[in-house]
Amino acid sequence: MLGHLIAVVVLLLFSSWALQFSFEEPPVPLVWPAAAVALAAAYRVGLTAAWTVAVALAVMYTLRDAAPITAVLLAAGTGAGGWLGARLLRRWRFDASFGRVRDVGMLLLVSAGVAAVLSALGATLPMTGLKADLGMAETFGLCWVADTMGLLLITPLLLSARWPSRIDFETIGWLVGVPAAVYGIYAGGLPEMFALPASYAVFPLVMIVALRRSIPVVALMLVTVAFIAITCTAMEKGPFVQADMRPNMLALHAHLAMLVLTGLLLAASRAEHVAAETRAREHLRMLARAGRISALSTMAAGIAHEINQPLCAVQSYAQSAQRLVKRGVETAELDSVLERIVHSTDKAAAIVRRMRGFLRGEPATRDQHDINELVREAVELVGPECKRLRIDLELALADRPLPARVDAVELEQVVVNLVQNAIESMPDAQEDDSRRQVCVSTRYDGERLLLAVDDTGPGLPQGDTTGLFEPLSDGGNGSGLGLPIVRTIVEAHGGVIEAGHSSEGGAEFRIYLPAAYGVGGHE
Known about the structure:
Elements: H1 2-18, H2 34-44, H3 48-63, H4 68-91, H5 101-128, H6 134-160, H7 169-186, H8 192-199, H9 202-212, H10 215-234, H11 245-298, H12 300-326, H13 335-360, E1 367-370, H14 371-388, E2 392-396, E3 403-406, H15 408-425, E4 437-445, E5 448-455, H16 482-492, E6 496-501, E7 507-514
Parallel strand pairs: 2-4
Antiparallel strand pairs: 1-3, 4-5, 5-7, 6-7
Helix pairs in contact: 1-2, 1-3, 2-3, 2-4, 2-6, 3-4, 4-5, 5-6, 6-10, 6-11, 7-9, 7-10, 9-11, 10-11, 11-13, 11-15, 12-13, 12-14, 14-15, 15-16
């Protein structure tokens, strides 16, 4: 009921403005908002809301001394157009947030081709009858233009309107500044030779707002601009004033229609682009999580061994404590044994926490971290696997903190992926093999931080190495997504990754990240 009531109130507000500006013969308003209100109400509140608007419209016509049959016909066309238009929009999966360019196209098609046609037909028949003469065609054309302009101007605002979560000063500035500029153009203050060219200066302003603000803000600004332009032109002011009222209003309508479509299409295109970027980031996050699961499954044997050590120690210390208790020793003599039990359980719990944090990968939160500490934590995850495979994992970290603004889990995944790739590239161990080695190093490189992972494996293919970072380029047993994920994470942090040959004959991957100054030793 509240939605129906709001629809009636909106109809009365817009109609009271529109009825002030009409052609003398036939008596058609310059812009008619009833079809727009009926369509928006039927879509947002329910299909029956279109008939609520139609009933309110019939009552309004009757109070304005229209014959009952005329009022019913006028209102019926509007109600039918809103009802059928809303049904089509719902069937075609129209998105009222205008998150896609196709939503603008759907609204234009339904507005001009369905709602405006039925509303204009319902208004034309009572005024001209069924005589298919020039008067009927002209009246229908004027009614269709008035309804179409009302639908283009008002429907986007009514469909996308939401209670704002916040209102910033920039939004207020645009909502006040652009209408003020339009008023300056249309209020008659400019010379006639400059007024018409100046009216096109509104287009870049609308384009800027469409590329910076949300659809509701753009729609509200367009409605305000149109109201000012139509009101001033109807009062014979502004660049579109001519001797005959019809040509100047039709020219203004064409001007405003292009302005509205430009704003809506740009805003929808921007929303579509933002949504695509969001989906890409989410897809990357899912791929990254899959990569973490794959890495952990590969490291499972080593991690199980690592956890087994503190658990075995706990069991041994607990058995010793039991024997001491049975012998009746003093409580003080148990302290050292109990401390060892606590230390061992803490160690096991820390391993589990690292695994869980690495596996879950919380949403990206970039804070200031010491790259050296993140490398140490990542190496602790792959360390057991290196021990199991008898691969020496060395650290050559800078002797001072290397602060950077990064997401800790993502950077740890970069290190894990690169070390895991190095491990998988190693040939099988031989009895006299002493060159199975992976080294992770960090240092300052000018104004950047350098994180390098090199190994003593077979090295990289000769020639261009950029193809290594393309999806599914892995020639081994991997998924082919490890290096692409690494590159995406590094570039998202403003860094660069390079692949080359190490001095030991193996592969080397170098990651350059922006440094966060003011922390650590680099000023």
